[in-house]
Please model this.
Amino acid sequence: MSQFGEKCREARLALGMGLRRFCVENSLDPALISKIERGRIKLPGAEFREKLADALQLTGTDRVAFLDLGHVESGTIPPDLLSDERAVELLPAVMRSIRSEQVGDETIDKLMEIIKRS
Model:
């Protein structure tokens, strides 16, 4: 199962909805949503993922985290980061640092904690 699929299922269940009811009420295909939740399909595009976040009633940081998971699993960079000149400038350095064998797991964990606190 994909992390995006897991989050999708968790959010749907938090609404107290079974798959069919959720899909009927939101004009979604139950087979497609089932495949997404089980990680059995390449994720649909960003526009569909936005519609799914709306259907799941995700807001704030939960919505951003959900959509970011979709970007990660789709191998894309969120448009808001691409439109931020400073972020675009920093992304290559961040990627090089993460790939580098010189940066250990402990350093990455510390960096993640700093980012989470900001």
About this structure: Helices lie at 3-14, 19-25, 30-37, 46-55, 60-74, 79-82, 85-99, 105-117. The longest helix spans residues 60-74.
